[in-house]
User: What shape does this take?
Amino acid sequence: MLKKALESTLTSKESDELISAFDQIGNIIIVRIPNSLLSKKKIIGETLLNKVKIARSVFYQASDVEGDFRIRNLEILAGEDNTETEYKEFGCKFLVDVENAFFSPRLSTERERIGNLIQNGEIITNMFAGVGMFSIMAAKKKKCTVYSIDINPVASKLCEKNIKLNKLAGKVISINGDTSKIIKELLINKSDRTLMLLPERSDEFLESAINTTKNGGIIHYYSHIHADKKSEAGKLSEEHYFQVTSVESEILGSKIVRAVGPRYYQTVVDVKISK
Ligand SMILES: C[S@@+](CC[C@H](N)C(=O)[O-])C[C@H]1O[C@@H](n2cnc3c(N)ncnc32)[C@H](O)[C@@H]1O
Assistant: This one.
């Protein structure tokens, strides 16, 4: 559909380059544009806005996802300059701000997988919760309590709104601040399951994850791993986990979550810890 929309503006080769770098979130379209096509960015934006019926705004992603808050700069190409929108996933509604708080539609399969693993009655620490995507999906699916921590005040505020929007007051608790500090003050040995979705810095926060997790609890340890062969990425991340952990651990499984570069993968290792 997109390719067709851009038919009059770009060659077939040019639109192929663009399509892999395109996200639609609610009524917002975000495109990453290769340098070779930057001179055409306005016309690309206007064409997409005109041809994609539900689009309200088209933004150009002007930076990578960066910094402690894992956010990106967006430049408006066409339509309304408003980075907030509503997004729906597996029956949950989310208010997201695609510029000022981390959000990725590309993690939906992983969110569903975690939701399916959770058992009724669990207490969960979501150490890097963003706007509460994993927390809210978990609490919608199962009877659990989720501590949903994020250091970005915009993300925590949106998480509070999302708790109300999904009628989960008291089941998901949004806490703003540094996860290590909050765990130390409030959440030692509290969780049956701990999520560590800040893959670039997992090693730095592993001790806090172990601290918040009960004896026999589960940690979902996300990391970024180089692997020459894709089939080896899971095993390599298990080996890496064993190099950095300080507790006895049983590996329950590992997998690639998504590719993040050439021979570079975001992986998750699910571990049961004893302490
Ligand atoms: C990759 S995002 C994950 C967000 C969320 N889990 C999701 O899937 O939408 C990482 C999040 O960690 C937060 N963060 C970074 N450092 C943190 C810290 N020290 N304590 C708490 N949150 C932190 C960022 O603000 C960001 O929202």
The chain has a mean pLDDT of 94. The longest strand covers residues 213-226.
